[in-house]
Amino acid sequence: MSEEFLPFSKPSISRAAINDVVACLESGWITTGPRVAQFTEALRDYLGAPHVLPLTSATAGLHIALLALDLKPGDEVITTPLTFAATLNTIVLAGAKPVLVDIDPNTLNMNLNLLEEAITEKTRVIMPVHFAGLPVDLDHLYEIADRHGLRVIEDAAHAIGTEYKGNRIGSVGDTQVFSFHPNKNITTGEGGCVTTRDADLAKKISLLRFHGIDREAWNRYGKSGNQEYEVVMPGFKYNMMDLQAAIGLHQLRELDDFIARRETLVNRYQEALADWPQWTLPKYPAYPHRHAWHLYTPLVNVESAGLNRDEFMTAMKERNIGTGLHYRAVHLYPYYREQFGFQPGDFQHAENVCERIVSLPLFPSMTDAEHDRVLDVMYNIFNR
Ligand SMILES: Cc1ncc(COP(=O)(O)O)c(C=O)c1O
Q1: Which of 212, 266, 271, 328 could form a disulfide with 233 if both were Cys (CB 3.0 to 4.6 A apart)?
Q2: Do residues 17 and 251 make contact, with C-beta atoms less than 8 angstroms apart?
Q3: Candidate list 184, 204, 223, 283, residue with the active-site label
């Protein structure tokens, strides 16, 4: 096989970003400092969020956003079975019980028509995922949350740049958590941020992110810094570094171009695969939105394809093309089955989708020739 391996995702890091990382390294200040402050402002402008807290990851964000809500043992947090383990893990780590609501098989987001059935007197938080960058129907979600007096933490790990009815995710609603992992729409290496409209929650997340200390290190040790500080609660070490923010500042400027390229590539896939019986293609909801296309996730129609999803992924890999699996149904992992009694059949739409879903290669620097190569290999696998 002569052609190089084509990954399913690849970050696009500009020369300017690389130069700024070098400048940061040479500046003498590489941890949380002026670049993180600049990145915070830039995120606030882009996302239209009053409070923005950059962190080491979205997992860290979900963890301390939940902890900041002071959940009590037995409190319930409602989420979706079609998500990364971090969504459920952080609910458990915050001392609460994950309660799941099946997905809508068209949008792959939580089925909001089933949400109210899952609400009990112990429910405190709803934590939906904007899957692949497609916004949850926020009007419907917040109507239910407000009526039941529940907090909402949107797992927006996939959704930087996503819009719902003309509003960016982060600019409306309660609290959101974004990821800047290398396969996301923008990256800082590892990284993430929380956005919120709640000033008290923002203050608490800010303390939890750095040892429960009121001031960040550069205030204490910089020229104008004050070395005095108080520890007001036991906190974590989840602060983003300037080295990461140096990358993020450049990535954020390019985000809209990245999404535009992703969208072009998705439209190419949708057109090329439209009449293939082997695939069920992503569908769009009727409400106005901008999909951020973090992932392109068709479903394998196993009978027409003559092979299942895992076999398809193996066949692609043998032909030097990477694919991704987002995700296996989280409730069927051993910990969740043993701890919470989840079983096969509990969430049938999610389980069906999780057996068939595959993420095809999609990243901003992917060329038309690389895209054609993916399609050619798929023609070849299915003998079309
Ligand atoms: C839906 C979802 N939530 C949370 C996370 C965690 O993000 P991070 O890797 O930044 O901790 C991910 C990461 O892939 C994710 O896909």
Answers
A1: 212
A2: yes
A3: 184
Q: For ligand 1, is residue 155 a contact (CB within 6 Å)?
A: yes
Paired tokens of 30: 């590489």
Say whether 204 is catalytic: no
Question: Residues 107, 134: contact at Cβ < 8 Å?
Answer: yes
CATH 3.40.640.10 domain locations along the chain: 15-253
Q: Measured from the CB, is residue 347 less than 6 Å from ligand 1?
A: no
Q: Answer yes or no: is the C-beta of 59 below 6 A from any ligand 1 atom.
A: yes
Q: Cβ(192) to ligand 1 under 6 A?
A: yes
Q: Is the pLDDT of residue 227 over 90?
A: no
- Per-residue pLDDT at 222: 59
Q: How far is CA 325 from CA 84, 199, 291, in A?
A: 10, 37, 19
Share of the chain above pLDDT 70, in %: 96
Question: For the purposes of burial, counting CB atoms within 10 Å of the CB of 212, is it exposed (0-12), middle (13-18) or buried (19 or more)?
Answer: middle
Whether 180 contacts 154, CB under 8 Å: no
Is the pLDDT at 1 greater than 70? The verdict is no
C-alpha to C-alpha distance for 159 and 178, rounded to whole angstroms: 7
Residue ranges of the chain assigned to CATH 3.90.1150.10: 255-381
For domain 15-253, say whether CATH 2.120.10.30 is its number.
Answer: no
> Ligand 1 pocket test: which of 179, 187, 294, 357 has the largest number of ligand atoms within 8 Å of its C-beta?
179
In CATH terms, 255-381 corresponds, of 3.90.650.10, 3.40.50.300, 3.90.1150.10, 3.40.47.10, to 3.90.1150.10
Q: Are 165 and 43 in contact (CB under 8 A)?
A: no
| Cα(59) to centroid(ligand 1), Å | 6
Residue-level pLDDT at 229: 84
Ligand 1 centre from 129 Cα, in Å? Answer: 10
Amino acid at 260: A
DSSP state of 34: H
- Name the E strands within the chain: 51-55, 76-79, 97-100, 123-126, 151-155, 163-164, 167-168, 175-179, 192-196, 279-280, 289-290, 299-300
pLDDT at 268: 98
